[in-house]
Amino acid sequence: MLSFFGLLIGLALLIYLTIRGWSLFITAPLCALGVALSSGIAVFPVSADVNFLNAYMQGFSSFITAWFFMFLLGSLFGKFMEDTGAADSVARWVVDRLGMKHAVAAVVLACAILTYGGVSVFVVAFSVYPMALSLFKDADLPRRFIPAALAFGSVTFTMTSAGSPEIQNWIPIKYLGTSPYAGWEVSLIVAVLMATFGFWWLKKMIGKAVANGERFEHREDDPEVPERDYPNPITGVIPLLVVLGCSFFLHEALQQSALIVALLAGVLTIAVINFRYFHNLNKAVSDGTTGALIAIGNTAAVVGFGAVAKSTEAFQVAVEVMTQLPGNELIGAAVAVSVIAGLTGSASGGQAIALPLLAPHYLDQGVQPDQLHRVVAISSGALDSLPHNGYVVTTIRAICKETHARAYWAVAALTVVIPLAGVALAIGLFSVM
C-alpha cells in the first residue's frame, strides 16, 4: 500500500512541479527517489538487486544513447532554417498567398506531413518551430499557442493512424502479427474527425485569446534577419522535402537510423543552398547544440523517473490489474494502455509494457488483432501527454521557451482530450462492424 501511495504522490508531485516551472533536472530525480524509498528500493547499488541509482541512470542514459544524434541534428536543422531566414521566407509566402487566417493551418499541416512521412515527433517540433514562430509573428497571434499547434499536428491524428511510420503504430505489430495499416477504415474516420474537431478547437482557443486582447509577444532572443537577407521561399521547402524523402525511402532499410541520415541530409542541403544567407553561422551552430542538450536532458530526466516507477511493486500490480479489467475487451485494452502510458509519460512505453500481457490475453478471447492494434495505438497517445511527458516538456520548454502554466492547457486539450474522444469513437465503430 505504501508503494502504491508513493507512486501516486511522486507522479502527482512531478506533474505539479513541472507545471510550476521547476527544473526537471532536480524534480525528476527527487520525485523518483521518493518513489523508490516508498517501495523499499535501495538507493545505492550495494547488491545485484534493483536500486534507485542504477534504475534512474539506466533510463536516463539509454534515452540519450538512442536519441542524441536525432536531437542534435534536428536542433541544428531548425536553427539553420531560422538563421538563414528560410523559415521567415516560407512563413511570409504562406501569409501572402493564403492569408493570415491560414497561418495556424500551415503549422499543423507541416507537422502532419513530416510526422506521417516518418520524421520523429521530437524532430518535427525542432524543424517546424522556426516557421511557426514566423507565421504567428506575421499573423500577430499569441505565441503561447505554438506548442499546441506543433503537438496537434504531430502526436494526435497522424502519429497513431493506420500507415503511420511512427513507432507508436509499429510496436503492436510485434505482438499481434498485424500490419501498419491495421483497422485502416476505422482509423481513417477517426483521424479525419480528430483533425477536424481538434483544429476547430485550436482556432477557437486562439480566437478567444485574440478577442481578449492577446497578441504576439516579441522577445529579446527572437531571431532578427534583415529583410534583404530573405532567400527564396523554395529554399526553405527543399530541405524539408529532403528530410521527408530520405526518411520515407530509407525507413525500412535503416529503421531509426534513417532519421539520422535524413536530418543530416536536410542540414547539409540548407547549408549549401542558403549558405550566403547565414546571418551568424557560428551562433546558429552554438545555439542549436545547446538547445539539443537542454532538450534531450529534460526529456531524459523524465524518462529516468519512469524507469524507477516501473521498478516498483506498485507499478507491477497496477499493470496486472489494468491488463485484466473485466467487460468489453477493447475498452479494457484502451484503459490499460492509457493508464500505463500516463504513469510512464510515454506512449511507446505504455504499449511496450502492456502488450506482452494484453496481446495473448485478448487474442485468446477472440478479439480481432486489427481492432486491438488500432485501439491500443490511439489510446497510447492520450494520457501519455500529461505535463511530465518528454515530448511535452521538450516542446514547451526547450523549443518554444514557454512555461507549462501558459502553454500546457491548450496542449492538453488537443493531445489528451481529442485522442480520448478518438479512441472512444474507434471502439464504438469496431463494436458495430
From TrEMBL:
InterPro entries: Glcn_transporter
GO molecular function: gluconate transmembrane transporter activity
Residue stretches spanning the membrane: 24-44, 56-77, 103-133, 145-162, 182-202, 234-251, 257-278, 290-310, 407-430
Keyword Transmembrane among UniProt keywords: yes
Any single Gene Ontology cellular-component annotation: plasma membrane
Pfam families linked to this entry: GntP_permease
Keyword Transmembrane: yes
Keywords on record: Membrane, Transmembrane, Transmembrane helix
Name of protein: Citrate transporter
